[in-house]
Design a protein that fits this description.
This protein is mainly alpha-helical and 88 residues long. It has one domain (9-84): Orthogonal Bundle (434 Repressor (Amino-terminal Domain)). It has five helices and two strands, in the order H-H-H-H-H-E-E. Helix 2 packs across helix 3. It is globular. It starts with 8 loop residues before the first helix and ends with a strand.
Amino acid sequence: MLRLEVNYIKAFRLAKGMTRVALADVMEIDRLTVWRWETGKTIPPWQALRRLAAVLHTTPLALFPTLNEPDEVIMNTKTLSAVCIAEE
């Protein structure tokens, strides 16, 4: 199971020289959402994760390195919803 707090969203964002506000603007989301993702409070839905990876010029696996199986189901404990990560 993916540990929600282990992600590199902030590191990739900072490496691109982006603020949370700038990333939120590009993603067309609230900056609080970016903060929640970076701190592991929530995880991006699959479509948002794919877009986030594209914006940061990386892959979803690079953002969440503890994800070791492409079909792993990630539980968002905050909302009790599941997101299925699958290779295309």
